[in-house]
Amino acid sequence: MTRLKMSQKNVFEQIERFLSTENPEVLSVSGRWGVGKTHLWNETLKANRATAKLRNYAYVSLFGMRSLDALTTAIVQSTVSLEGPELEPTFDSYLEHLSSFPGVIALTKRAARKSTTVASKAASTLPYVGKLADLFAPGAALLISKQIICIDDIERAGQGLDMADVLGMVSSLCEHKGCKVVLLLNEDALGEQGTKYRSYIEKVVDQAVRFEPTPEESAVAAISAEDVLGQQLAKQTVALGIKNIRVIRRIRRFLQHLESELTDLHSGVTERVIKSIALLGWCVFEPTLAPDLALVCRYAKFRINLSNENCSANELNLDQLLKAYDFGDFDQIDQVLSDGLQAGAFDRQALQKLLEDESKKLASEEAREVISKPWKIFHDGLGNDQDKFIEAICTAFERYSNAMSPTDASDALQFLRELGRTEEAERFLPMYVDTQKDKPREFFALYTCNRGRLDPHIVTAFDAILAGMPVDRDPTEILRKIVFSQDWGPDELAYLATLPSECYDKMLKDWQGHDLNNAIYLALDFGRLDTSATNKIEFARQMAASLQRIAAESGLNRLRLRPYLTKIPPALMAEEQSSEEPDN
């Protein structure tokens, strides 16, 4: 028999047709594990329970079942009326079903009196109901008639329950008992029983369909429409083509564990985590269909050599998938996510640090993009886009003043004024200055040697901020470290470049001998050898000015410092030097 491949919508329609008549019939629905066969059957039955022609229904699973007697008894135990409130069997529904057969009413009442304290549960789990079922087991088949029966998990039947016997019983229920039977199974997992199933299916099954939902249908079945984060995940599972509902739900549960970590971070972090966890979760939870996880981890390495003839077909296929999925290099975040998915729990501390760093990076990139947008408009052409240019400047100030450099801010203010938007310029100036107040001293080194390029109002405001800023690091120790190690970082030079003049005077007076000599020559070399490094130039200029001030304090100091004063580059010399000898 040809198995028609059908989407969820088509299988839903076939089940509706199946339920709409009272004609005895066997419908087989096969599909891979996790695609939602049972879910679809239950949802379709619920939607059509009022109109189904047969009014009694039983659901049984063959998982671990070892005999036809057990199957027959399970059908009797599980039978419920579609007129009732629930489709799950209970103690009451079991007694109600048995009481519909006059010959067993008395026996039912006697058993019921023994179990009055037992809560209503699934009938097959209740001790007295189980004993009652034992009484009926030899003739249980007589209690099955003209009803709907769903037999699930056929491929998981226990040892002793042969496929030929199951199908023989199904045929008997249909032909002699007037029942409608639906079989739910994964035909690919039948193993040795598969041959028997395929040989008998033509004689037993009236219609066989292969359930292959679309990724969109599986996502809808797995994730609630009200689940905002889940809907973002659904977009990624659809993009990957995941059809296994259980896998999608499992990935969603792991994503739920991370929701607190994602709170208050850049929205791009959430998008990035969802994209990664969808792919990696698929690899971990459905390895037979998903890409090889080890290959995904090595993607950044092997994709460089994809043109090499030695690349495998799996590597080429993975490259196509990940390019279409827009997945970048496998990084530290992916590694922690992968480890957590495999271990069953995430290293939350390690992941939180990585996510916070990623959030800062994305925020910085976003700010840079917004700040640079006006200049892209300016340089891209000669269109009639002045309003667009001004709007971009305003947006940059309003959203990212704190991330703008003094040069960016000065240029933007100048353009606003030249374009007749003085009012906006005056509004944004204090806004910009206010966002810079908490910056460290090193930040102000960015403008110290470029005052001519900056808006004078910004220079004045920054000078005031810098004047009121305490010197919270020992400049002598910073300079000592630079002198002795001949190594320095940009932050250290930036800090020294912004110090007031009295700090330089104190540093020179605190040093003696060779240390003093080395410190002075280092500073002067900065001013002579690397004129493009603004912090070095400012540091050298401040040191030269301090030498001149100290030399002017006494004749002896002038003589002491004369060897150094003659080596000061002209560009570093103070504009005015006293030609008079000091009185003392």
UniProtKB/TrEMBL annotation:
Residues 22-226 form the KAP NTPase domain. It comes from the Bacteria. Pfam families: KAP_NTPase. Gene3D superfamilies: P-loop containing nucleotide triphosphate hydrolases (3.40.50.300). This is KAP NTPase domain-containing protein.
